[in-house]
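Consider the tokenized backbone below.
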């Protein structure tokens, strides 16, 4: 059975409203019975540096520990690549059968097209 977990700083700083959004998304998507890593989009934005912030609920449906150190991710909208970046996140580790929210920051140099935040998808490349 899939379980939801929060990184410790998220657990402390997350508003009740955002926690509810994440918990609702988890309840709707954690029932997928696959043997893969799945991303559920939560929200997207730009920060003050014009970097693309993409918050995803990451589902580890595998029986293996998943690390996000040196992993290439693509952010897609309507099946078109908007941004691509090689992430070095040694602290982002997700246990088997767990789901966890995370915000990925795509530097401006990794953005290929303007984001519209519609029909969002994240894929490991």
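A designed sequence for it:
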């Amino acid at each position: 059975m899939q379980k939801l977990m929060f990184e410790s700083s998220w657990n402390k700083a997350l508003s009740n409203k955002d926690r509810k959004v994440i918990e609702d998304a988890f309840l709707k998507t954690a029932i997928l019975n696959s043997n893969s890593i799945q991303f559920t989009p939560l929200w997207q934005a730009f920060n003050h540096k014009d970097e693309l912030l993409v918050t995803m609920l990451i589902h580890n449906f595998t029986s293996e520990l998943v690390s996000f150190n040196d992993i290439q991710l693509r952010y897609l909208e309507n099946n078109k690549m908007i941004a691509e970046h090689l992430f070095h996140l040694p602290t982002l580790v997700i246990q088997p059968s767990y789901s966890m929210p995370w915000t990925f920051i795509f530097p401006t140099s990794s953005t290929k097209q303007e984001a519209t935040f519609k029909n969002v998808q994240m894929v490991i490349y």
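Residues 77 and 118 are 6 Å apart (CA to CA).
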